[in-house]
Amino acid sequence: MIELHLGGMRARNGTIIFICSTCKVPPNFTFGARNKGELVYLMLCPKCGIVLGEWDTLEARGRELSEFAKTVKAKH
User: Cys-Cys crosslink for 8: which of 14, 26, 63, 72, Cβ 3.0 to 4.6 Å?
Assistant: First the structure.
């Protein structure tokens, strides 16, 4: 699930860069556990520590970020 603080911008070469909408820095991708035995994939702002996204699988992360990138392209 993408959180409210995830933003995106278009790079000079046309690719989409994900950023923290608060700090304007690219996120870190990491993983952790909600409960013992439950793996979750996270996207965190390295500067302010806000969770920018959280997913149960890498496939779900890829699908949701691809859809989000399309909305960024549409805005520019």
Answer: 72
